[in-house]
Amino acid sequence: MSAPKLSVVIATFNRPLSLRRLLAQLGDQTLSAADYEVIVVDDGSAEELPAELRHASAPFASLILL
Fold first, then answer.
1. Percent of the chain with pLDDT over 90
2. Which is the most buried residue in 18, 35, 45, 53, by most CB within 10 A?
């Protein structure tokens, strides 16, 4: 697999529902899924990101949760 052409970086804090919705919307983009990756940075949320987000299969080149 070649390197993605685009990286989308999302900073989040205590917004798991909004993050879930945003990731779903990114998956619906017209850009080929192999052409972009998504990097989510959780800035010390009170609750850990839900397990379903941590272990979700992504429709884009990669989903990195930090």
1. 8
2. 53
DSSP sequence for 3-65: PPSEEEEEEESS-HHHHHHHHHHHHT-SS-GGGEEEEEEE---SSPPPHHHHTPPPSSSEEEE
Tokens of 51: 């397990």
Exposure class string for 5-15: b at 16+ Cβ within 10 A, else e = eeebebebeee
Contact 36, 4 (CB under 8 A): yes
Residue 41 tokens read as 């940075």
pLDDT of 46 above 90: no
| Sign of the torsion formed by the C-alpha atoms of 21, 15, 54 and 40 | positive
